Structures are given as C-alpha cells and as structure tokens.
C-alpha cells in the first residue's frame, strides 16, 4: 500500500480569495453610503436595498473568510483538508439571500396599497453609483468557478439589477407621479433571483449529502474502467465532491486473471491512464482477485482473511 500526498493546485483558489475580498470591500463601503442615501431621499426602496446589501456584505465576508480557511492543508482530524467549508459558505449565503428576498417582498407588497413619493434626484444619483459598484464587484467575481463564487455572483447581479430597477423608476417618477412602479419592480426582480438561488441551494445541499456531482461523469468513469481488459465488474463505485470542483472516487475493480507483481503494475498503470482525463482530486482503487468475496459486503460473514491488493492512485 502506498501513501501519496495530494498536492492540490492552490493558485486558482488563492485568486478566488482575492476576488471575493475585492467584492467584500466594494459592497461593504457602498452599503454604508446607501443607508445614508436612503434616509436622505426618503426612499423605502433604497432602504430595502441597503438592508439587502448589508446581508450581501455579511455573506461575502463569510465567504471570503471560509475560502481562506479552505486553503489550509489537511490535518490528522480533517484528512481531506477544509475545502468543504466553502460549500457551507455557499449554503449560508444562499439562505441569507432567500431571507433577504423575503424581507424585500414584505416591504414592497404593503407599498402597493400605500405608495409614497421619494426624492427622485437623489435616487437617480444613488442608482447610477449602485450599478457601477455592483457591476464592478460582479465583474471581479466573474472568473470564479466555485459554488461559493457562483452564489456570490448572483448576489451582485441581483444588486446591480435592483439598481437598474431603481434608476428606471426614479427617472419615470421624476416626470410622472406613479409611485406604485417602485414596489412592482422590486417584487419582479426579487422573484427572479429567488428562483435561481433556490436552485443553487438545492445543488449545494446535494453536494453536502455526498450526492454524485455529475451523473454523466460517473457513467463515463464507470465505462472507462469496465472497458479495460481483464475487468469483470465494479463494486462500491463512490463518486462525490469536496466543494463542487474537487472530486473524490473510490472503487473496487473485480479482475478475472491471476496477477503477479508485474501484472498488477500494468493494471494500475492502465487504471491511472483511464482516470487521468477526469482530473480527480483523490482516488482509491482496490483490485478484487478471481473468486475473492467483496470485503465490504461480506466482512461479517467471512472471518477467514483474504489477501487484497489495493492502492491509491493519484
């Protein structure tokens, strides 16, 4: 049995952290400006957006902290490292965003019955600033692939869209007295974002529960191994993901030929070659010899021990 240390490329994940840090400071500074602006313009829409942005800043801050923790090396206790923390971050962010959206709805719906006119010039100014700040933050996070960044990107797109809505409403209200437009628009974009975030939360939850990250990849891995010479069948093929990007595979490969050291080396090299295209972070492959019962299924039935050849392929 060989032990390999897994060297995961951390440069891309370091970039994630920098991108998220950028988004955090942009958002946090702007949230403070918004609260003051909302109070000065007497716009409930801007106040609602400020609270929403505050929620975003908190969850971006959390994501930033978790993505930094996620780069720590594995320990005796957490042998896979801390990659899954970013999944937890994505989960919490998604929930904050859902709660925030519900809050915005609870503010906007009563305003349908009792609309008030805000100070339109101030609204227009803040909206233009809002579009610029959130657009820049979303652009900064755009290159990211982790679940965390995708959820955060939605936060920022949601905010930028919210500001576009505020801008349109403010311009219309500047010329026409239709204050009801404001709550109608905020309800519309909040629903749109809710649908997308719920989808992400469901996806993140499935990764949390160690669901297969991608069914077609699992089938392709299975086909690649089964099409090898001397391979009869596969037992216990477990394919799951640490954080939506770093995948883990363990499998028992049942072979139908006698093996000496040389044959075993050839089989391992072939398995390694077949799995290479899938870029898996951790793989453990065990060979089951002809006539040998599967240890995981029959452990409690067979007290007599069998010789297992297994290896970890990196």
Automatic annotation (TrEMBL):
Transmembrane spans: 20-40, 87-106, 118-139, 160-178, 184-202
Alphabetized UniProt keyword annotations: Ion transport, Membrane, Transmembrane, Transmembrane helix, Transport, Zinc, Zinc transport
Entry keyword NADP: no
SUPFAM superfamilies: Cation efflux protein cytoplasmic domain-like, Cation efflux protein transmembrane domain-like
Any GO CC annotation of this UniProt entry: plasma membrane
Entry GO MF terms: zinc ion transmembrane transporter activity
Protein family membership: Belongs to the cation diffusion facilitator (CDF) transporter (TC 2.A.4) family. SLC30A subfamily.
Protein name (Swiss-Prot/TrEMBL): Cation diffusion facilitator family transporter
Organism: Alteromonas macleodii
Lineage, top ranks: Bacteria, Pseudomonadati, Pseudomonadota, Gammaproteobacteria, Alteromonadales
